[in-house]
Amino acid sequence: MRLPGVGGTGRKFGLNEVPIGIPMPSVYVRMLAYAWGEPVASRACLLGEIFSPAQAHALGMVHELAEGGEVVERAVEVAGTTPQDCIEQYAFTKRACQAAACGTSPTWPIRSTRSCLPG
Length: 119
Hints:
- This protein has 119 residues and is mainly α.
- Helix content is 42%, strand content 8%.
């Protein structure tokens, strides 16, 4: 995840569902705990703690910070690091990461047996 907020002030990141009376769906809580770790997910989900961009980055909630006008360009650049002919493998692996958090098993839709390794 990329978050605008290198320059500028007043930018914040957080989940305020519980403090405003909306329960977090369990699947989201499990995925956030898997992605961020239990302590960070608890701070964000249970307490509704709001973080500055620098805090969110330091806690591992976001991969990097970028200026607001650079976020889309940087996201496209990162997405471009996956070879086009390996998109299905990428998608499966992403589902597998999410499935581990949700206690499910992804299906294997890959039709190609071509290796995506360089060389």
